[in-house]
Structures are given as structure tokens and as C-alpha cells.
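Give me the fold.
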Amino acid sequence: MVDLKANPFYLDDESIRWVEETAASMSKHEKICQLFADPLMGMCREELVDFLDRYPLGGIPFRAQLFGNEEAQDIMAELQERSKVPYLYAGNFESGPNGALPGGTLVASGAQIRATRDPEFAYELGRIIGEEGSAVGYNWSFGPVGDILLNWRNSLINTRAFGNDAEFVSACVEAYNRGCMEHGIMPCLKHFPGDGWEERDQHLTIGNNGLSCDEWDRTFGKIYRNSIANGVLSIMVAHFTLPSYQRKLNPQLRDEDMQPACLSKELVDGLLRGELGFNGLIVTDQTKMMGYYGMSRLEAVPWSIACGCDIVLGINDMEEDYEAMKVGIESGVISEERLQDALYRILACKAAIGLHKRKAENRFHPGKEALSCIGCEEHMSVARKAAAKAVTLVKNTKGQLPLRPEVYRKIGVFVLSGNVGCQKSIYGQGVQSGGSDKTTGYIMETLRRYGYEPELMVSSMSKGKIADLKNRYDAIMIFADISGFAQTNSVRLMWPDPMSSCYPWYIHDVPTVFTSFNYTNHLIDVSRVPGFINAYNNCPATIDETVRRIAGLADFEGKYDEDVWCGTWDTRF
């Protein structure tokens, strides 16, 4: 039985009564629907109303990007007002409200905050998420990211994680949580049991965390224990295995029977609930990912709940998923006690952030004036401060930086950009910076503003004469604005032509600097480039702060971790 007065809910008697009475009043159909959360993408306002009248879900990872903030605010409030039980509205708020809101502030990525070495920016990230997200109607954040970048080849969390130091990651997680909760947005710590050990992407396959039990306890375990002790309300369980703990908690478990965490009773009920003592809400990661399919979906949907999760995130087909859950309950795969515990935790989270009181008082529309904080000057100022402190000079082996415009005026510019996948058009906004069509324009405009005469280089297999290149350019700047998500296990530089004229073959003849606006590991592909900068996102403010430092008008303050060298000796030259 769930203790509703204990950590993390701390409910008073009135709130406990609401949970108990609401659960008791639900029909079997309503109980089943509460076990699902889905973004319901592609539905217009009327379709959302109709669908939720028929299937009142427990949560909706809402995509305000697909409507605009004003219309999204109206829709979210209307749906809450029509509901019997208020919805958990989630946003993919990792680097800022930009993860769900048009014009939302991209405060700082996890890697960017790591470069500052200052967890206070994680608090500011949570605070701004809370202010801007709640202005539209959100109350749940799919963040913070509590992963640890232990493998430089891991492109999924390269910029999303707060680095490779468990102590720092834990401090940032707690700061983020505090900022969110100050504005009534419930954080969801992810991705249990911890991504970053290997390079595979759980969107594409079942991944693996290969740490021993002792190693896990000292790293990921420290983050989860600390956050649980501090009252985190929800945790997202992901689609990779943790064999050391699965074997420890079930010595009879065969390798071929080992399931990803969201389908593993050993990891959910045994480790997260048992060993770590988590009493809060557990939600699966998106079940449309390939990593979820350790068994037939028809078995997996009810088993996710049976093994200890409380909400299944992602609906494939509503009728089929609903029926699978119903069969799981009727057949006893999901016991009555397990069903009630899941419902109590869902409702308790809603009560813990006051949704039951707002429902009773019909206080779900924040008002249009609340939207003025989205992308406001104060929030953008925080983002600029983070950018200024984070821009990192990794290499300057020839001492060519700064490239002062009075000396290096004529600049050859090449921008490697693009998205591996089209998450921004489908989902409204991706979780990673990079791949913006506007980046090249921002770069050229900024270079001119600082006194350079930039010229975009044209890629060709014909390199031309070195003498001509030296006469044409005083220096060359290469900018990488690459993003990848859910369609490849690795994101590497891809030049437009084989043996491209833009590739840094000229580093011995023309001063050259390479800047990345997303991934921190591009040195693996440009190992001998003498000047290398990590800037962490492609916002105009970040581009400006980067060029200021290239021009020698400000010092580089960002710090890098050793994984920036990609485990390769020659990247340091």
C-alpha cells in the first residue's frame, strides 16, 4: 500500500481523501486510461476533446509548438476544465522551455552547464522552465537528465547530460528540481538506470549499462539516492539493461530473459522501489522506441505496470493498447493491489502539485498576460550569461587565437549543418540544439558586426592552389551545427563532397579554427585542427559570445572534460 504521507508526496489528510475518493469513484475504463500518457500529436482541438472524452488519459506530453502559446494555453485549460481528473501536462524541458514552447528560452544544455562548473545555472534552468512552462499550462517536466557521459561515443546524451562527474550531475539535478518545483512543475528524473555507459541509442535498440553493482552505486546510484532522499516526485525508467543488478537480484535470470528496465521487475520493483526506496511515480520512457520491444507489445503494455511502473508513456494504437492493458488486469498479470498502487501514485502526484485544488477552484487558465515571460529579456540574460561562461577553448596548439579582425579580416567560412532525422518538424521541437537553417545567417551577420569580412566557402572536390587560398583568406573558420536524434546510433561529421575543399587540409598554411555548436566530440573527425572550440548551442547569443572570444574581446572561461579528446592520442596536437 502506498504511503501518501511519506516522501515524496507528503499529502495532508484532505489531499489523501481526494486521492482515495477519486480512485474509488473511477470506473474500470477510467482506471485503465489513467495508466497511459501520450502526446496525441496530429490532433486538432476538436479531435483532442473527442479523444479525451472517450479515453481520459493520466497524462499528455503536450506540444505547444504545434499550436502556438496562446492557443495551447486555451486548449490545455479547456481540457483540464472538462476532465474528471486533471491531466499531467509534460514538456520535454531539458535545456529550457524551448523544448516545448514557441519562443521559449533555450537556457543552457547539460554540457553547457558542465562547462561553467556552476550548478546555479541548473537552478536557473529549472526556474525558467517553471515560469515559462506554467504560463502556458504545463505541470510536469521530462527532465532533469541524470545520466553520466561515460562514453564519448554516446551521441544521444552528449550535450544533454551534465557531464561525466556524478557529484556535479547530482548537484545539477537537485538544483534543476528545486527551480521547477518553485513554480509547480513536477520534475521527472531520467533515464533510470542511467544512460551514457555505451553508445547505442534506446530509440533504435535495447541498450545496456555494463557497470558493476559497486560502480553503479558510486555513480548513477549516488544521483538517484540523493534525488529520492530530496523528494523527487517522478522518475522515468528507460529501455536498457543493468545486468549486474538484474543478476544480483535474480540469480536464476538467464541472459536471454533479461529485459530492458521498464520491463524488468528486478530493476523497477527490486532496485528502484526496494533498494533505493522510491515511493513516487514511475513512468516508462516512450514505448514507441525500439528499445521497448523486449517482448510482444501486447505482453509488454500490461507487464510494464505489473513489474512496477505506474504510467506507460506512448500509445501505438489506442484500441489495441487499451485492450492489452484490460486483458492484463482481467487475467491477473496486473494484480488489484498493483493497479491500486499505480492509481494512487498517479493521483498523489497530481495532488502534491495542487492540481486537485486548482480543479475545484477552476484555476487552470493562467491568462494571456502570463505569456509575457516566455523568452523575456531577463530569461535571455541568464542564457547569455551561461553562454559567456561556457564557451570553451579546447585547442590552440599553434597559438593562432585570438584572430583579431584588424589582422585577420578576410575570413573563409564553412558551416556544416543539418539534422539526422526530422524531429523538429514532427514533434515541434527536439531535445537538442543544432541543425538550424538560420545558423549560417547568424554566423555571417555576427562576423561582420565584429569587423570581419566573411565569405562562405563552396565545397568542391577540386581544392585549387594553396597560394590562391592564402591570398583569398587571412583565416578560415569552420562551424559545425549538427543535430541527430533517434535515427542513428552515431552522429559524425559528413562533408558535402568526398575529399572536400572545405575539409581542413589547409591547416598548415592558413590559420584555422573549428567551432562546434552542439556535440562536444567532433575532434575525432578533425583531429589535427589547431584551434577547436565547443560552444554547446546555436542560439544567436551563443554565436555572439563565441565570436567575441575568437576576436579576442573576451576570455574563454569554459572548462572541458577529458572525454573531449575522444580517447585518441592525436587529437591533442
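The longest strand covers residues 410-420.
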